[in-house]
Input
Amino acid sequence: MAPLLVFLALVYAVPFLGVAAWSVTLPKPGFGQYERLVADPLVLSVFLRTFRICLIVTVLSVVAAYAIAYVWVRGTRLERRLVEFCILIPFWISILTRAFGWLALLSNRGLINTWLQAAGVIAGPLPLAYNEFSVILGITHVLTPFAVFPLASSMRSVDERVILAARGLGASRLRIFWRVFLPMTASGVVGAALIVFVFTLGFFVTPAILGGGRSIMAAELVWLRMFQSPDWGLGAAISVALVAMVGALMAALFRLARPALMGGLR
Output
């Protein structure tokens, strides 16, 4: 394990320590940049927007991925093959291409607005792009396949005998799902939620393209502070704060979700 630990330290720990050093040394030594994180209205608004988008994307992605994983695990042979195809296709297309694809669909002169206006459904274009709605839609599209894998893994570990026992006792399909199947897959739900939330917290390309500078998230703010209005100290402080938030959230979620996980294992 020693070579792997050394590699991880060089790749992750050393750069992070360098960024942490910038946050307390630029432009002058001290913790002034961290004070700006809680005092600057712009930074606070970006953090609030980021967490709001993270929560919405997490809920949408996990719900969609749960339905997809359910069909993938418990569907017919043909349904499973179709789901596998739909899951794998997005991984063959770059995030940049998918973002511009959504832009072609949602912009004022995009396909959706063009078709709706041609059909006489709307008089003017709907504001579907360059806002928070398009950012949420684009990120959810990217991250839903990532949420499928932990959910499918937990579903495959469900003991079919428990489902049969519930049916034998007269439980309906809906009751079996809510009282038996869903609790037994709680570990997959937690894992999928963690993956999606953490990935969304650091998203850059999709919000930058689909948001059009109107729905800035934390990662984009870091880039702006580093390269547009060079303020490396603040950009580094935001980066360190994001890492600390991710660690705290993961620890809290694991602690709060432990009863559900243990119940699912039983």
Notes: Residues 187 and 261 are 5 Å apart (CA to CA). Residues 36-84+134-265 form a domain with the MetI-like fold fold (CATH 1.10.3720.10). Residues 259-266 have pLDDT under 50 and may be disordered. The longest helix spans residues 41-74.
